[in-house]
């Protein structure tokens, strides 16, 4: 049966831990200059309805390292942009490529695509979730600290796609997730409810960060919300990750951000560039984590 990766919940806890372990192995192999090309002649199709640096480059480089090929398909230049139904595109691409990644707006678009796709479909970000980023964030945590079960993780900022994926990660790997967000910017209530006692919502950033092992944030206005930038800057002014906020977390707390970051908005330059920040490892790990994911999906279809 074809496996997809539309949300983290498409993997079991054991599978997620195995993908993270494999990502760490693949990273070590690459650092030792070992060639590992199990997917010669395989093609990844990548559909982008939104901008990207990390997602595009990590998938494309990853497939090249595997001996395969990646195709960048912008909706602007394909028939998708002229209204060809996603289901038709999914059926056609399934006959030509071996695996497909999509970055788009509505999560329902990727669900409709996956319903008819005959090859694995990977969510490269939707308005609702960003599960590939969580693979990289979790890999980064595991490298630095070991298993995440029982740890206290704090999300500061918007209850957005990244926040939703953190909620799913808390469910799967059994960590405590505190979400510090303004009243009007809470995560989706159903996604929160499904996570039960693993998730706590707070509206005071300092209280949310107190005694935490990892502080994570993201932009205040996500792709597609550019027109809300000013309104959001006001709503989120007490939700900047800065030195004072890091001071109330554990002394060895890490800082993560999926990037791109807006310095002096959601995070101070001091924290982003400071000793607790692991954002560059986190960005690099997109490559290794997604290679582990591609390997998992191609071996299971
Ligand atoms: N973090 C992330 O997904 O970055 P890009 O938007 O550059 O792909
Ligand atoms: N929440 C951000 C993440 C970017 C990688 C967005 O959706 O724009």
What does the model show?
This protein is an alpha/beta fold. Helices cover 42% and strands 14% of the residues. The protein contains twelve helices and nine strands. The protein has helices spanning 13-31, 54-65, 86-94, 107-116, 131-145, 161-173, 189-194, 205-209, 229-235, 243-248, 269-272, 279-299; strands at 43-48, 69-74, 99-103, 121-123, 152-156, 176-180, 199-202, 214-217, 254-257. Strands 7-6-5-8-9 form a five-stranded parallel sheet. A four-stranded parallel sheet has the order 2-1-3-4, sandwiched between helices. It binds phosphoric acid mono(formamide)ester and norvaline.
Beta-strand residue fraction: 5-15%
Distance between the termini: 6 Å
| Helix-strand topology string | HEHEHEHEHEHEHEHEHHEHH
The quaternary state of the protein chains shown equals single chain
Q: Structural class of the secondary structure composition? A: alpha/beta
What is the spatial order of strands in the main beta sheet? 7-6-5-8-9
Classify the helix fraction into a percent range.
40-55%
Q: What integer value in Å does the Rg equal?
A: 19 Å
Number of beta strands: 9
Please identify which CATH superfamily of the largest domain we are dealing with: Aspartate/ornithine carbamoyltransferase
The distinct bound ligands, ions and cofactors come out as:
phosphoric acid mono(formamide)ester, norvaline
Question: What number is the mean pLDDT?
Answer: 98
């Amino acid at each position: 049966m074809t496996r997809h990766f539309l949300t983290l919940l498409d993997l079991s806890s054991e599978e997620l831990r195995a993908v993270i372990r494999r990502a760490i192995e693949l990273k070590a192999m690459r650092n030792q200059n070992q060639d590992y090309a199990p997917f010669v002649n395989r093609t990844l199709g990548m559909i982008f309805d939104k901008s990207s640096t990390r997602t595009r480059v990590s998938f494309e480089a990853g497939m090249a390292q595997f001996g395969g090929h990646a195709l960048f398909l912008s909706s602007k230049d394909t028939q998708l942009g002229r209204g060809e139904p996603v289901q038709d595109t999914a059926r056609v691409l399934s006959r030509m490529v071996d695996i497909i990644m999509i970055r788009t707006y509505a999560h329902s678009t990727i669900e409709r695509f996956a319903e008819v796709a005959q090859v694995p479909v990977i969510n490269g970000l939707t308005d609702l979730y960003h599960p590939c980023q969580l693979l990289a964030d979790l890999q980064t945590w595991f490298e630095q600290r070991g298993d995440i079960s029982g740890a206290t993780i704090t999300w500061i900022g918007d209850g957005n796609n990244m926040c939703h994926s953190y909620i799913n990660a808390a469910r799967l790997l059994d960590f405590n997730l505190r979400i510090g967000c303004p009243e009007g910017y809470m995560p989706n209530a159903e996604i929160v409810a499904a996570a039960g006692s693993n998730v706590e919502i707070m509206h005071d950033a300092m209280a949310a960060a107190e005694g935490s092992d990892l502080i994570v944030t993201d932009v205040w206005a996500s792709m597609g919300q550019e027109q809300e930038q000013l309104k959001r800057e006001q709503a989120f002014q007490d939700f900047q990750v800065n030195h004072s906020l890091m001071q109330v977390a554990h002394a060895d707390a890490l800082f993560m951000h999926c990037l791109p970051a807006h310095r002096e908005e959601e995070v101070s330059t001091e924290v982003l560039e400071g000793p607790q920040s692991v954002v560059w490892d986190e960005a690099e790990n997109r490559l290794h984590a997604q290679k582990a994911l591609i390997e998992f999906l191609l071996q299971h279809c």
